[in-house]
Amino acid sequence: MNRLNENFSRLEGDYLFSEIARKVEAYRRAHPRADLIRLGIGDVTLPLAPTVIAALHRAVDEMARPETFRGYGPEQGYAFLREAIQQGEYAPRGVQLEPDEIFVSDGSKCDLGNLQELFSPRCRVAIADPVYPVYRDSNLMAGREVLLLPATRENHFAPELPTTPVDLLYLCSPNNPTGTALTREALQRYLDYAREHGTVILYDSAYSSYLRDPELPRSIYELDGAREVAIEFKSFSKAAGFTGLRCGFAVVPHALKVDGQSLNPRWFRRQCTKFNGVAYPVQRAAEAVYSETGRIEIAAQIAYYQENARLLREGLQAAGYEVYGGEQAPYLWWKLPTADSLAFFDRLLDKCGVIGTPGVGFGPHGEGYFRLTAFGDRERTREAVSRIAALG
Length: 392
Ligand code: PLP
Description:
The structure is a single chain. This protein is α/β, with parallel strands linked by helices. The mean pLDDT is about 95. Helix 2 packs antiparallel against helix 9, helix 3 (about 80-90) runs parallel beside helix 9 (about 280-290) and helix 10 runs parallel beside helix 12. The chain contains 12 helices and 15 strands. The strands form 4 sheets. Strands 2-8-7-6-5-3-4 form a 7-stranded mixed beta sheet, sandwiched between helices. A 4-stranded antiparallel beta sheet has the order 11-12-15-14. The chain has a two-stranded parallel sheet with strand order 1-13. The longest helix has 27 residues, at about 290-320.
């Protein structure tokens, strides 16, 4: 009898970012004086907004007094935060959610990795390729077969519909790594497909704050028929610099049913069993994101990263490269002149001291591409562009 979950053997090597960290560390040891610019991992660099920090401090002080101390909170998140999410995130787009359709969590990675537990191991899963690796790996761990849907420059990074019916379809828009966003029409096509085939769409919208084009949907629930087929995931990580604080949420609408059963109470049951909620001060900090001053400060942070993205995009284009993304997302998807993105990683590190992410790490159709992120410092981003331009 095998005592281990053998599905783990189906995962490819190490998690991409650990592999890259190892390579960079080896390079730094060999070249201790190298001036490296990190445009690889998708982590923010600006500190938390002052309004968020003030909310954190206030909440920490509350924890110090017996009359305001809080212990375990509701597993689904405090009502004040779910209300702020409804009012701040959804009401402006004409979307009305019930408070118990919103599940506050410690970030989208856990939600995206965990939600598949609600489904049978025999479910057929389709995932855009290339994409954030968590969808694929969490389904492989659960023993499911995964169908990859190529997202290429030919289809404008909006994959064709699956040719065989699937039970689960993961979509990410704006996309990590391609930096492109699905149009309303493209998204409606997936929704129509899902309604026709009884497919559940898992819609990861972690980067929706980076959308500039007002015509693009910020939430899948802005589109017709989404509540019956889609779960949406959002995160405060890239929207408000919470990567180290940890807060996000999933929306599981009551109208979403599979085999006649509503998924909402099942996800509630799952969370109550395995999750004990997000720290009270962190939820107060997330609430502050939607306050008047919070919004202004955070909009300035997003604008800073958007400007970095513009510099990267235009700089690479001026140097004669083909580059996608960077307009509706903090990621640039650089079409390489070579098919080997791992070899290109080594070359860029060696010749320019610039660290990016090889596209192949996001799926087979990422090969031949390279991801750069806009989360760096402005001057270092400019410096990276000029070093890349000089590479020739
Ligand atoms: N979804 C996408 C597409 C991401 O790129 C990330 C993080 O990089 C996440 C979700 C997870 O974010 P977090 O767990 O920090 O909320």
